[in-house]
UniProtKB/TrEMBL annotation:
One cellular-component annotation, GO: periplasmic space
UniProt-recorded name of the protein: ABC-type nitrate/sulfonate/bicarbonate transport system, substrate-binding lipoprotein
UniProt xrefs under PROSITE patterns: PROKAR_LIPOPROTEIN
Top-level division of the source organism's lineage: Bacteria
Location (main, coarse): periplasm
InterPro entries on file: SsuA/THI5 (IPR015168)
Taxonomy of the source species: Bacteria, Bacillati, Actinomycetota, Actinomycetes, Mycobacteriales
Compartments reported by the entry: Periplasm
Signal peptide: 1-22
């Protein structure tokens, strides 16, 4: 079974960024000596959020894909991609889940991390914006000056919105307000924000509450966009290439297995992503990647370049680590 051992908040991560950097590596993660497949260390720690987009991790653990590679993986809960990225950069974690948008922004700002594996992308209508059913907002052209809740700025919500608006020629400038996904629906219902943004399973909860969709953020330039990845520090990847290769192979093998067993995945996912069985049968299934795709990562970077979020010469291939065959 998978192991979730602790939750680390932003304050804890900030402290760990200092203390763990002095130690130079992830705590209690090295076994010493080469293991099966020449791996440098068998015990690795991975920070993760229990969402369908990252379900590959638990599927790989429960179905023996990590074990087949000689890995003993500890999955540890983190409070979001930015916190996890800090912990990876400091050496407190070996790997962590992230969004591709957060990874591109962090690496552009000099954080020494790389994408170790590309996990999943957004299926059709799996990320969307919604309003109260009696709202006078009907579509994207009505959003100029309106407030839109997003979980983080310069991330999936606002970047995909701006990309879609640009592709449609919509000249609108909303105000983005950071709201946790767990509070997004109540924010719309109370009128604190005009528009909510959510991925699954929060989106299904919004539909169940009677919210009305106004934008499918997977349209246009965002179709099957690569949104979810796993990162590691450049130092860990350089020092443990065989371990990282084995980890990536296990993830991609797990994704191939998920794609071949969709119904089994839908029956199983409520145990990980905290959704009911009915929602699990109906949600759009993430687009699971079975190999590194630098073109998909560069597409994310290009969207952010166009929005003046990152440097115009950003090259995603410099921050995409490819496992040895």
């Amino acid at each position: 079974m998978f192991k979730t051992t602790r939750v680390v908040g932003a304050m804890g991560a900030a402290t760990l960024l200092i203390t763990a950097a002095a130690c130079g590596g992830g705590a209690d993660s090295s076994t010493g000596g080469a293991g099966p497949n020449g791996i440098e260390q068998a015990d690795i720690s991975v920070g993760a959020l229990p969402l369908a987009d990252y379900s590959t991790l638990w599927w790989a653990e429960e179905n023996g894909f990590f074990e087949d590679e000689g890995l003993n993986v500890s999955i540890e809960a983190v409070q979001g991609g930015p916190v996890g990225a800090q912990m990876v950069a400091s050496g407190e974690l070996d790997f962590t889940t992230s969004t591709t948008f957060n990874t591109v922004s962090a690496t552009d700002n000099g954080m020494p991390i790389e994408t170790a594996a590309l996990v999943s992308g957004s299926a059709d209508n799996s990320i969307a914006m919604y309003v109260n059913p009696d709202s006078d907002i009907q579509g994207i052209d009505d959003l100029d000056g309106k407030t839109i809740g997003i979980n983080n700025t310069n991330n999936t919500g606002d970047v995909t919105f701006n990309a879609l608006a640009d592709s449609l020629g919509a000249d609108v400038t909303p105000t983005f307000i950071e709201v946790p996904f767990t509070e997004m629906l109540t924010g719309v219902q109370s009128g604190a924000i005009d528009v909510g943004y959510s991925p699954e399973p929060f989106l299904s909860a919004a539909w169940a509450a009677g919210m009305r969709q106004i934008i499918d953020l997977t349209d246009g330039p965002n179709n099957e966009i690569a949104t979810s990845n796993i990162v590691s520090s450049k130092s860990f990847l350089d020092n443990n290439p065989n371990t990282a290769s084995a980890f990536a192979r296990a993830l991609y093998a797990a994704n191939e297995d998920i794609l071949a067993n969709e119904q089994a995945w839908r029956d199983w996912i409520p145990s990980i992503a905290k959704m009911d069985e009915g929602t699990a049968q109906d949600i759009p299934m993430p687009v699971f990647f079975t190999e590194m795709d630098e073109t998909a990562l560069q597409h994310i970077a290009d969207l952010m370049i166009e929005q003046d979020i990152i440097s115009e010469d950003y090259d995603a291939s410099e921050f995409a680590w490819t496992a040895d065959e």
